[in-house]
Write a structure and sequence with these properties.
The protein is α+β, with helices and mostly antiparallel strands. The protein has one domain: Aspartate Aminotransferase, domain 1 (Alpha-Beta Complex). The protein is 29% helix and 27% strand. The protein is globular. 30% of the residues are buried.
């Protein structure tokens, strides 16, 4: 495990750490070839420099965020923010459905909006093929 991400996970309460460790394991298992690092103080995975998925501790839960998740057509992912992101929130590791998570990660690799060039395009998102 990446040392910075391990330190992030280790900083959590035992319940939140279990969720983060499970998410880390599943993301790395199913998102082959992705670069992972701490970005804006949270673990994030990138494909060719484009942010795909990450997780972060919120006050009452651990949030799993897919940058292009609103395009996945998945009812268990809720819209987040003003672009195409969608999220799932967990308060217990038992809530992490690994089969559903694998489906989301497969879609995350195939369905992407170009966040990498968002600033260059002055806030306009374009779909990557």
């Amino acid at each position: 495990m990446d040392n910075e991400i391990q330190a992030y996970n280790d900083s959590m309460s035992p319940a939140d750490k279990a969720i983060c460790q499970q998410l880390y394991k599943e993301i790395n298992k199913h998102l082959k070839g992705a670069e992972s690092k701490i970005w804006h103080r949270h673990p994030v995975w990138f494909l060719e420099g484009n942010p795909i998925v990450g997780y972060s501790k919120l006050k009452d839960s651990v949030r799993l965020l897919f940058w292009s998740g609103q395009s996945f057509d998945e009812p268990d992912l809720l819209p987040e923010g003003t672009f195409k992101a969608a999220e799932a929130r967990y308060t217990d590791v038992k809530q992490v459905d690994t089969t559903l998570l694998q489906c989301w990660l497969d879609k995350a690799a195939k369905i992407q909006w170009d966040y990498k060039n968002l600033v260059k395009r002055k806030g306009v998102l374009e779909r990557l093929l």
